[in-house]
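Long-time lurker, first post.

We've been arguing in lab meeting about whether zinc ion would sit comfortably in this protein at all. Half the group thinks yes, half thinks no, and nobody has a model to point at. So I'm putting the question to the forum: if I give you the sequence and the SMILES, can you give me back a predicted structure of the complex? Inputs are below. Any interpretation is welcome too.
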Amino acid sequence: MYMKNMTWGEFNANKDKVVILPVGSTEQHSYHLPLSTDSVIAEGVSEEFAERIGGIIAPTLCYGYKSKPMSGGGPLFPGTIDLNGETLIHLAMDVLEELCRDGIKKIFVNNAHFENEAFLLEAIDIVSRRYPDVKILESNWWDVLSQDVIDKVFEDVPFPGWALEHAAITETSLMMYFAPELVREDAIPAETGFSPIPYHKYPIVKGMVPDSGALASAKGSSAEKGRIITEAAVEEFVRIAKENF
Ligand SMILES: [Zn+2]
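Top reply:
Settle the argument with this. Predicted structure of the protein with zinc ion, as tokens:
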């Protein structure tokens, strides 16, 4: 199912399948999660999704648009490697166009980094105008979760909203599920007490977000919650793929 492990001949013989493009980032995720968190989650969800629909997983885009202080902690953490918006648009455009040129007709862009979406949609829109016969879908695992699933995951802690769910319960639980060996459980920061400002401020300066880089606490995370989120998201992705492809 991984395109990177196929020969060109094998890829060529499977062009009728859905190609899933996971998109992540290289971004700080507090004291307890690795810089690859968004990419690991994008790929993990894509793997279960691909299994269900017999899809092909294209190589993951592991860099994303700039981390914003109020949704990702911002750029002032070592190891956060951000792309300019223009770069991400062109990166995604080039990859999507190459897939279209190869004769792929069904593409699902599976994004796992909050700030990427507008730039991915711009790339998809431009490519779509050039290749109107190719269907391209885009979604994020958090967008397809029902209120029931959110209630279940946050039954013992309050839900802080998706922007603050950075390195918090959902991402930590997903990492415990997909890659427990990469989670430093002892280093999970306690309640941050952080309340975001309702505007953006440039230049971005230190002190706008907690030192840990977490915007809400990850206490209460579990691999089981990660499994619940993954199953629900994959179920929806499968439904969306069946409905549209
Ligand atoms: Zn993240």
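For your lab meeting: The CA atoms of residues 128 and 134 lie 7 Å apart. The first strand starts at residue 18 and ends at 23. Whichever side wins, do check it experimentally.
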